[in-house]
Design a protein that fits this description.
Distance between the termini of chain A: 24 Å
Low-confidence stretches of chain A: none
Oligomer: homodimer
Order of helices and strands of chain A: HEHEHHEHEHEHEEHEHEHEHH
Shape of chain A: globular
Strand content of chain A: 15-25%
Largest interface: A-B, 52 and 52 residues
CATH superfamily of chain A: Aldolase class I
Chain lengths: 274, 274
């Protein structure tokens, strides 16, 4: 199957940088190094330094929108994305907003992600069913990343419930792979913290790409996650680390520390997939 | 049980205005009357006119955040909420954002709703499980409105799946009522478009309050929804209408038309509950 524009962009960045690492841009001002705190554009300055330090090492960036919305910094999110376009022109941006609402409202959220922020992909929540995701799916050139099995401990509460002979997350995975992905623009979120579930979802969904959070601060084991989740060709994964990279250092050299952490993660992933 | 601050505020507004009507503030500039279009503050001007026209007729206002985020109008959302505080001081504001993310990020979304916008309540998505909702639940004085059975057609796709002898939405309803509501700050979203499900969830959750979307533009029958969903005392419901009120008229008299539509809905609800 021909790759859609998002998948082509992702594959090109992954190949150019020999990397499946996605850096999550989840700025928390209270964790910033002292020299940035207090600046009105602290978030943008922090993100720029992180982007400068990692632009040649990643296959994607993933800003998590709550970190901007909580402090009214939508403008700095917008500027950060603009900076990625400038500094890392081939690297796709996944807006992590996990939206989910009825169709007419979902169309507004799609506008938020794709028109306002110009993201290449967006995360969405499946609980409201297909018609709530359809306004996103209509963006055939983008990536629509559906939550399937998340990386948190509470994921078990509903996602692991047995629905006949499958769990709810298995039902979601198969729905997305077999019914929602008609335009080839769907991906799934599957947490690194559950390698068995990664392997199971891989077996159920063929070559789909997974966005995999949960390594780094959340404690997921990189080698186990990669080996459980990769396709036979050794790809199909976008492995996100946010806090483990952003806050690898807390001093003036935070960007250099972030680069080292990104390199380490990239190499650990590549060692596991080859 | 003593009502928490949100529930007390909601009950007081409902009693003062003899109303279970919530007006959804979902501004769509392309549907605004001609005299407002083109103004940079069109959304705020529209909302102010709607608030002026309905302040004495409602128990709550519910701005849906996608309608602001899609066009970068967070400031007008903030100003609209400020205007509600001034013009309708006792009326609670439910921020409809349906957020859901892992704990550390959920805390940021709670900050967005309660610190940034000063909302009295917020809607949340249960798919990620309790730890994703806990940072909201910790706000004991607020209302945490958990999606249970939504009003859209696609709701059936996952929410109606059979989990043992219950459906997924029944499992969510009972979890929230029996486990998540320890602080008395939980509510449920149950669509007016499914009266049988409303009755079923009422039976499973005792006196919990339901936020009920789906009357008006979505076609839910008011009388059937009220009679299916109300408590024996004739309350426990917050019935939302957005488009049916906001766009009841499209000319210069849109605010007067919105007032008439609100009055009609209030009276239809009250006729059904008494």
């Amino acid at each position: 199957m021909t790759l859609n524009a998002f998948h082509a962009r992702l594959a090109a960045a992954a190949a150019a940088h020999d990397s499946l690492v996605c850096v999550g841009l989840d700025p928390e001002v209270e964790r910033f190094p002292a020299q940035l705190r207090g600046r009105p554009d602290a978030i943008l300055a922090f993100n720029r330094a992180i982007i400068d330090a990692t632009a040649d090492l990643v296959c994607a960036y993933k800003p998590q929108i709550a970190h901007y919305a909580a402090v009214g910094a939508e403008d700095q999110l917008q500027e950060s994305i603009r900076y990625i376009r400038e500094r890392a022109p081939g690297v796709p941006v996944i807006l992590d907003s996990k939206r989910g609402d009825i169709g007419s409202t979902a169309a507004k959220y799609a506008d938020e992600a794709f028109k306002r922020y110009g993201a290449d992909a967006v995360t969405v929540n499946p609980y409201l069913g297909r018609d709530s995701v359809e306004p996103f799916l209509e963006w055939a050139d983008k990536g629509i990343v559906v939550l399937c099995r998340t990386s948190n401990a509470g994921a078990r509460e509903f996602q692991d419930l047995k629905v006949g002979d499958r769990t709810l997350y298995q039902v979601v995975a198969e729905k997305v792979a077999k019914e929602w992905n008609t335009r080839g623009n769907c991906l799934l979120v599957v947490g690194a913290t559950y390698p068995e579930e990664l392997a199971d979802i891989r077996a159920r969904t063929g070559g789909m790409t997974f966005l995999v959070p949960g390594v780094g601060a959340q404690g997921g084991d990189v080698r186990r996650a990669v080996q459980a989740g990769m396709t036979p060709a050794g790809d199909g994964l976008v492995i996100n680390s946010s806090r483990g990279i952003l806050y690898a250092g807390s001093g003036e050299d935070f960007a250099a520390a972030a680069r080292r952490a990104t390199l380490e993660l990239r190499d650990a992933i590549n060692a596991a997939r080859r």
